[in-house]
Amino acid sequence: MNQDFEVVAAARNWRVDVEQQYTPSEMIGEVFGSDVLTLETLRQRLSKPMFKSLQATLERGDPLDPRIADAVALAMKTWAMDKGATHYTHWFQPLTGGTAEKHDSFLAPSSDGTALAQFSGSELIQAEPDASSFPSGGLRATFEARGYTAWDPSSPAFIMRHANGATLCIPTAFASWTGEALDLKTPLLRSIEALNKAVVPALNLFETPVGRVSSSLGAEQEYFLIDEDYFYRRPDLVMTGRTLFGAKPPRGQELEDHYFGAIPDRVLSFMTDAETQLYALGIPVKTRHNEVAPGQFEIAPIYEQSNVAADHQQLTMQILRNTARKYGLVALMHEKPFAGINGSGKHCNWSMGTDLGDNLLEPGATPHENLQFLFFCSAIIKAVDEHQDLLRISVASASNDHRLGANEAPPAIISIFLGTELTEILDRISSGQGGRGQVAGFLGLGSSVLPQIPRHAGDRNRTSPFAFTGNKFEFRAVGSLQSISFPITVLNTVVADAVQALTTDLKSRLGSGQDLHTAVGELVKTTYDAHKRVVFNGDGYADEWHQEAEHGRGLLNMRTSLDAIAHLTDAKNAELFSRYSVLSDRELAARQEIMYDIYFKTVNIEGETTESVAATQIMPAALAYLAELSGIKQGRAAAAISEEVAAAADEMYDAVCKLREENAAEGGEEIHEKAHHMQQNVLPAMQAVRVAADKLEKVVAAKHWPMPTYRQMLFVK
Questions:
Q1: Of 480, 248, 530, 514, which Cα lies nearest the Cα of 378?
Q2: Which SMART domains does this one have (predicted)?
Q3: pTM above 0.85, yes or no
Q4: How far is 534 from 550, CA to CA, in rounded Å?
C-alpha cells in the first residue's frame, strides 16, 4: 500500500488495515489453501484405515462410515484451534439464496471447575438449528421448528477470520425433521449424482475408462463499487440494493473507456486484499478487470467441481462485501443497481469431467471426428431444447428481470450458440454430407513483429444465454445476486435426462449390429434434426430474433419471472425431478412458493421505499427550492424554472398518491396473486414516481437535492 493511498485513506477515514504483504511465491506456496482443511492435512492427522475410509467417501461417493466421525472431528478441532479458531459452525445454504451459520464454542466445562476443548463426531455429522425462521414454502409450519444440518464431506471445512479471531466453518446440507431439503445444496448434490449415474454408462459404450463423473464450474462474478459515504445517503440502495431514483448523468458508459481500463488504486488495493483472503480459502480466482459500466468490475475463478464451486461462489460474494468496507467502499451485487447502464451477471461456465481428469466437452483438434464429444454435445442441445422452461425459471427473480433482454444481457429466450465450426459440422451430419467443417487456422495481425496466433474456428457471442466457448458451455443468464446452486441443479438434471435417453438409443443401435461410428452418426443426426431450432448464432438482441424465435421456431419467451415461475411445477418438470430423485413434488412446490414470496417481498420493499423517499426527501427538496425561487426578484428565468419545478412536483405528488394506494392494496389472498399485483400495479406506479423525480433532479438546485446523484456515484477513485 503506497504512502499517498494511506494519506488519502486517513483523510477519508477509510477503515484500512495494512495487512502482511506476501511475495508471489509465498502466495502460491504458503497462502493458497492455508485456511482449508485439505485431504493432505487429514492424511497427516488420521490413521491409514480411517483416511482410506474417508477418501472412499470423498472420491467414490461411498457412504460415510460413522465409526470414523470422532477421529475426523478431533483432527478437525485440533487443526482449527491451531489456526486460532475458538468456535465452529455448520455453514449451510437455506432457501434465502444466501448462507447461514450458528456459532458454537469448542469450550466445554468440566466437573472440577475448569474447561476443556471438545468437538465430537456427532457434533460434526449433525446439528439441530431452528428451522422455523427459514423459508420452507409450506414444508414446515412455524411451530414445527426442528431442522438438521448434516456434514457434507465433499466440500472441505475452512476457517473464516474476523478482527478478533476465527471460526471453523463446516459445509453442511439442511433438512427438515421429515427429511425434506430446506436448502440449495442438497438438490445440487443429488443432481451431481444423477449426472454421474447417467453419464458413466454412456462412457462405457465408448470404452472410456471412468470411475465417476461430475460437473465442473467456474462462475464469473460482476459487481459495482461505490463510495460508502454515498451508499448510506441513498436509502434506496440501503433498503433494496438498487437505485429507485436517478437521472441519466452527462456521462455514463458512452465513451466505452471503462472496459479493461486501468484499475483505480483504491479499487486495486481492495481487489488484492480480497484475493489474498480468497486464496487462503482455496478459491482459485484467476481474473480481475474493469467491466463495461463505470464503477463495475469482475472477478473470475478457474474451474472446480460444481458443489465446491457453489460454496466458493457464496464465499466470494461475502469476502467482496466485507473487504470493500475496509476501503470506504460498498460492493453492490444487484443485477441492476443503476438504470440506463449495464447490469451485472454471474456467467456460469459449465462442463462435465471424469475422475481421471478428462473434460467430456473438449472437442479436440478435429471435433467432427470426436464421436464422444458429438454425442454429449447432442445431448446438451436436446436438454436445452426440451427444458427451456426450467433453465429460464432457474434464473428468475425480480432483480434479474431488470437485466435480461435489456440489450446488455441475454434475452429471456433460451437458445444455444455453437459457433461456426461446430454448427457447420452438425449441419453436414444433418444433410448427410459429412466431411470437414471450417478448420481453425492462424490469425495474421498485419505486422511482421507480431506473432501469428491460433484462431478459434468459432467466434464468441455475448448475446447468447447458453454459449459453447471451446470446451464448456457458458450459462450467461444467471443473475449476479443469486446463488448458482439452483441453476446448476437444473442444468445437471436436464443433461442427465438427455444423456440417459441418448444412451438407451445408442445401446439399441449397437445391439442391432451397427458399429459405433455409424450408430453415433445416425444418433447425432436424429437428435440435431429434432432440436436444432434451439441453436442460434446470431444477434440475440435483435427484434427480428424475438419474432423468429417465438413465432418461427416455437421457442418459449417467458419475458418476466412470474411468467416463468408459474411453470416450475408443470407435470413434465415434477416428473423429471422426481425420476432422478433431485426434488420431490413437495420440495418442488415449496420452491415455487418461495420464489413467489421473494418476488412479492422484493417489490413490496421497493414500492414502500419509493413512496417514503419521494414523500419525505424529494418532495420537500422541491418545495424548498420553490420557496427559495419565490424570494428571488421575478424574472423570466426564475419564473420558467419555478413553473418547471412546480409541474414536476405536482406530477410526482399525483404519482406518489397512486403508489400509496397500490402499496396498501393486498392484491389477493394467495402469494402468487400478491406477486402479480406487485408486477402489474406497483412496478408501474413506482416508475411513474421515478419519472417525475428524475425530472426534478435535473432542475432542482444541487444544494437542495437530498441524495448523491449518478454522476457522483458511478466514477470510483
A1: 530
A2: Gln-synt_C
A3: yes
A4: 11
